[in-house]
Amino acid sequence: MLGNRRASGSSDHLQDLCLILGDKMTPNLTGTGTGLLLAEAEVVTEQKPISRKPLPQTKTPVKPTGPKYEWHIVWRNVLAFAYLHTGALYGMYLVFTQAKLATCFYVLFVSWYSGMGITAGAHRLWAHKCYKANAALRLLLAFCNSSAFQNHIYEWVRDHRVHHKFTDTDADPHNSNRGFFFSHMGWLLVRKHGDVRHKGKAIDMSDLEKDWVVMFQKNFYPILMPICTFVIPTMVPVYLWGEDGWTAWYVAAVMRYTLVLHGTWLVNSAAHMWGTRPYDKFISPVENVYVGVLAFGEGWHNYHHAFPWDYKTSEFSGYSANATTAFIDFFAWLGWAYDLKTVKAEMIEKRAIRTGDGSHPADKQNTNKDHRHGIEGEIWGWDDKDLTDKDREMMSIINPKEEKTE
């Protein structure tokens, strides 16, 4: 049985965190305040378009050519992150000194399913339309996504599509040209650049607006998020195996949530800086196996930006560094996921030969090292109107089914 001090302490900390995070969880296209992870990047005055050169094979910092940006810090987010990281460190201490073994395994389980809500759900299903899912799987992924607290699906998808269309420009919410810290988490501590909001309005979101699961989660996110992210992970260890309330809060809720955040953030930072570019050396994303493991298969980022509609986000079919592909394949076996899109080997080899950095086996035949193309205006996914019919013909569809309305 829990002591009154421990039980009440857990409740008090939950109430305190909710007060810090705030209650405005709607999309931030207008620049108004939003929740903790709604990226409010810097606001600047009108400026002339910046002429951008293709990235060289070895990534080098790009010096800004426009007027100096005026950053506006969102202090509420700074305080919230300070609490989360302090609490996460304390949670790590409790893991080795007080937490029960069952709680430690439970943390791994919650980390996995909340991560799937981002990678298999918001990212591969809804942002890139890499596959289709029936209502049951979409509901499951919406619950998992609500447990990750990285904005509701609609907001996450809109910002991610903007990221792909305008990678490493002012319209990119986590522009990696501004350094590791900014692209990792700094973009969440300052207000959004005006181009993010302006160009975000032009992104087609009609497909998500027709999905009742996405809109239900969006409308009830202020209720679903705290329950799924903090209440359930805290209460399950307390009531199922008698974990101390204080320990459950800091280990299963605060520490677990913070670590999952960093796993996701590495895709925006490390996977744009350190690694190879076998498919396109003129863009910043790289192949990074360590990010692949920590982010459940999202580390094959050069491939992903070259072919954003491939449900594997990788040329490889193995699961060792791509847990999300295993998740999707399992539900395809059940019949819940269908129309899985993947790129034919011929198209991959042609792209590697044409624009790769020489690290891909097919690039040994590369005789066109001087090819260039822009990094702005890339494809965000399968339903992007700029995706050519020729590219669509180079796709393979796994587990195809007739279109369903659910």
TrEMBL record:
GO terms for biological process: unsaturated fatty acid biosynthetic process. Residues 108-308 form the Fatty acid desaturase domain. InterPro entries: Acyl-CoA_DS, FA_desaturase_dom. It is found in: Membrane. One of its GO terms (molecular function) is stearoyl-CoA 9-desaturase activity. It is a multi-pass membrane protein. Its main location: membrane. Its cofactor is Fe(2+). The keyword Glycosyltransferase does not apply. It holds the Pfam family FA_desaturase. GO terms for cellular component: endoplasmic reticulum membrane. Keywords: Fatty acid biosynthesis, Fatty acid metabolism, Iron, Lipid biosynthesis, Lipid metabolism, Membrane, Oxidoreductase, Transmembrane, Transmembrane helix. The keyword Ion transport does not apply. It comes from the Eukaryota. The histidine box domains are involved in binding the catalytic metal ions. Belongs to the fatty acid desaturase type 1 family. This is Fatty acid desaturase domain-containing protein. It comes from Apolygus lucorum (Small green plant bug). The lineage of its organism: Eukaryota, Metazoa, Ecdysozoa, Arthropoda, Hexapoda.
